Amino acid sequence: MGILGNSGSGKTTLLDAISGRLGHKDNSLGDVYLNGCQLKKEQFKDCLSYVPQTDTLLSFLTIRETLTYTALLTLQKCSDDLIRKKVDAVMAEVSLSHIADKIIGSRNFLGISGGERRLVSIGAQLLQDPMDLTSVDTRSKERELETYSRVQVIVSAYKNSEIFSKVLATIERTKSMKELTPIPFKNKDSPSAFCQLWILVRRITRNFSRDKMGITMRLLQNLLFGLFVAFFLLRLQNDLLKGAVQDRVGLVYQCVSAPPYTGMLNSAVLFPPLRAISDQESKDGLYKKWQMLLAYIVHFLPFSIISVAIFCIFIYWIAGLHPDAARFGIFFAVVLACHIIGELLTLAVLGVVQNPNIVQSGVVLLSSAGVTVGTGLLRTIEDMPRVFKILSYLTFQKYSSEILIVNEFYGLNFRCGKSGTSATHNPMCLFSQGTQFIEKSFPGALSRFTLDFLILYAFLPGLAIVALLSFKIRDRIISRQ
């Protein structure tokens, strides 16, 4: 049977309606019958599937891996051997066995052809066990003859019917029958939420692990920035006339403002393809959108830790910050938090804003505003208008900059050129100790050190919750489209 119509006439909407992809919309009218039995709306998704127009697949996975992860998300109480056999059977059915280990590919690098991508999408739907009556099974000559004969019977029966009136009459007659053919529901034995999350983490990791250049850049992007800063500042001095205070303040400013940007770039580039896949697969009931989000967060944390650790080890000891292991640990913890916050903030916005470019611009604007208002490095918070002073408490940059300033300046002693030089002779010689600078520029920061640290790390679960909520909102938005 074919559904014909021009663009916008409702072909896809009809398929969405009868396969249960329209969500809880109440503006759709009509009934769906299967083998003479009327289906409830909540049963549509359990019986019917269709392959979308657009093939949304992970670029670096092979055909076998793509179908295997779909099978794992669909089936729970199946052994690895049974899942492997089921995947092999589906690949044979859609004639993909000979290229099972080729990667999917994308516009940027060569993979399988467009037609083969279409077959992979079909195979992914077949793994969910839908109403399979009109396809020819080519796994063996016997199955091919049997299924081909079945298709011919269906075609023959349709050709011999009086198309419209007979179909309606048959429907009405079937509805009044006492004994009806049972409805073939899909496999309902799906994995638990935790198992689904673990499968998604494994799939994301395997997909991104094939992008060697991408992994290298994720691990070294912060170091590349650190190289530039290190060559610009060289070794920090304790002489006020040689920029002892200004250089340290500038380094703190960079360590607070730059890591969120690298985190933002990671999410803006890597997550939109995963979001597109979760939009499609969640409609099929494989998992919830928030599970894909949580899987990505679990995936990027090790990369963030390694990347920030490489940066911190380099910049801290090369620049000559306070030579104490405990203080290095605090420095690393603060820079890591800033990097992860940038990534989480981007994910939260990606939940409700479709265009990654708009998201990227918005996060950059928010981060820039946070640096300006929150750090007190461009203008002390005490000198700001009251409204900006209040807003500074909502920025993570306020707490991270205060921690880093105290961490570096506490206990430092400065000199000012030749011995005996004072503020009278040179206005730059205002401070002989780092604590004097802290109390003048960040009054009370010493007593707030622990509290600042706790508040800074409270941003992490807070933004993670906001991101999860944004994807809940995304569910609502998509279901109403």
List the helices and strands and how they pair.
Layout: H1 11-18, E1 33-34, E2 37-38, H2 41-47, H3 63-74, H4 80-93, H5 114-126, H6 141-159, H7 163-175, H8 193-209, H9 212-233, H10 244-283, H11 289-319, H12 325-350, H13 356-374, H14 386-392, H15 396-409, H16 434-441, H17 449-480
Antiparallel strand pairs: 1-2
Helix pairs in contact: 3-4, 3-8, 8-11, 9-10, 9-11, 10-11, 10-12, 10-13, 10-15, 11-12, 11-17, 12-13, 12-15, 12-17, 13-15, 15-16, 15-17
Write a structural description.
The chain is mainly α and 481 residues long. It folds into two domains: 11-176, 3-Layer(aba) Sandwich (Rossmann fold), CATH 3.40.50.300; 193-479, no CATH class. 63% of the residues lie in helices and 1% in strands. The chain is built from 17 helices and two strands. It has helices at 11-18, 41-47, 63-74, 80-93, 114-126, 141-159, 163-175, 193-209, 212-233, 244-283, 289-319, 325-350, 356-374, 386-392, 396-409, 434-441, 449-480, and strands at residues 33-34, 37-38. A two-stranded antiparallel ribbon has the order 1-2. Strand 1 (33-34) and strand 2 (37-38) form a beta hairpin. Helix 10 packs antiparallel against helix 11 and helix 10 (244-283) runs antiparallel to helix 13 (356-374). The two termini are 27 Å apart.
Order of helices and strands: HEEHHHHHHHHHHHHHHHH
Strand content: under 5%
- How far the N terminus sits from the C terminus, by CA atoms, comes to 27 Å
Structural shape: elongated
Question: Quick summary of this structure?
Answer:
The chain is mostly helical.
